[in-house]
Amino acid sequence: MKRPYILEICAGSIESAYAALQGGASRIELCSALPEGGITPSYGAMIQAHRIAGLKVHILIRPRGGDFLYSKAETEQMTEDILMARHIGVEGVVIGALTAKGDIDVPAMEQMIAAAEGMDITFHRAFDLCRDPMDALETIIGLGCHRLLTSGQAPSAEAGTALLKQLVAKAGERLTIMPGGGINAGNIAGIAASTGAREFHTSASSVFQSRMEFHRNNVTMGKADTDEYARKETDPAKVSAILHALRQA
Question: Could you tell me if 241 and 185 are in contact, meaning their C-beta atoms sit under 8 angstroms apart?
Answer without folding.
Answer: yes
